[in-house]
Amino acid sequence: xxxxxxxxxxxxxxxxxxxxxxxxxxxxxxxxxxxxxxxxxxxxxxxxxxxxxxxxxxxxxxxxxxxxxxxxxxxxxxxxxxxxxxxxxxxxxxxxxxxxxxxxxxxxxxxxxxxxxxxxxxxxxxxxxxxxxxxxxxxxxxxxxxxxxxxxxxxxxxxxxxxxxxxxxxxxxxxxxxxxxxxxxxxxxxxxxxxxxxxxxxxxxxxxxxxxxxxxxxxxxxxxxxxxxxxxxxxxxxxxxxxxxxxxxxxxxxxxxxxxxxxxxxxxxxxxxxxxxxxxxxxxxxxxxxxxxxxxxxxxxxxxxxx
Length: 307
Ligand SMILES: C[S@@+](CC[C@H](N)C(=O)[O-])C[C@H]1O[C@@H](n2cnc3c(N)ncnc32)[C@H](O)[C@@H]1O
Known about the structure:
Layout: E1 2-6, E2 11-17, E3 22-28, H1 32-39, E4 49-51, E5 57-59, H2 80-90, H3 96-125, E6 134-138, E7 156-161, H4 166-176, E8 184-188, E9 201-207, H5 216-226, E10 227-238, H6 246-261, H7 271-277, E11 283-289, E12 300-306
Parallel strand pairs: 3-11, 6-7, 6-9, 7-8, 9-10
Antiparallel strand pairs: 1-2, 2-3, 4-5, 10-12, 11-12
Bound molecules: S-adenosylmethionine.
């Protein structure tokens, strides 16, 4: 059943309500007609106009109907040896200097971009407080999110990343955030094959990582597999700009270069659509924002998916 909820302001919220599935959307009046048309025959819709939790106004994109490729399943249940095979297959070892340089670059970027993104993340990570103790972060990188975990009582953090040089940066972030060393573990693996048991974590977090994984669908399957029932997946990802926009043209041109200089990062992925279509039983809350400090890595989708 689809319910339209009108609010007092110019915002309209749409909730697709069923016992097993939940998708919420908010959008501007201008795009309501389009949204209603899109709702017929598709679940793939997300926020198109909203206010940031910190009060800034943001552009939000319109509903889309993706065509998602069917991808192979590398593993049905990841064991440590399977995961190493998949890691070596998807991310063959690269030169040490390249991995080190990229790790160093990520720590610099972290400082630069965190200011603008912090208000979103603060709100997003509140979803973990009181609900999650064992948290897995995919593509943890230099660990810019670790400071958000220290408000969670009894938290233990597992960080997955195929770049082994990220471990020391992530560990430094963990110490700086006040995590005990036994409460942080770095796992050298890819998110497409995570060496953890089914239903073994309360939450999965991923920021700016779906742009870099080899297989988004398989990564989402792994997230669903390792999450316990009722667990949450928090995401914040940069995605392709609107078709036909100048920014999208820039992204199309820069995309091949970006993949080389930024360790496989793609600029034109429709990650939000993949998340919406991944079949999270509890539904997905998804929003879109434009962040000026990210230049061509904009807009972003962020939100929570519920297993
Ligand atoms: C752009 S950085 C983002 C790092 C961090 N999450 C952040 O928000 O700054 C992308 C990270 O994803 C990692 N990565 C790339 N491919 C991956 C994969 N298949 N599975 C998991 N992580 C991956 C990279 O090594 C890198 O640390």
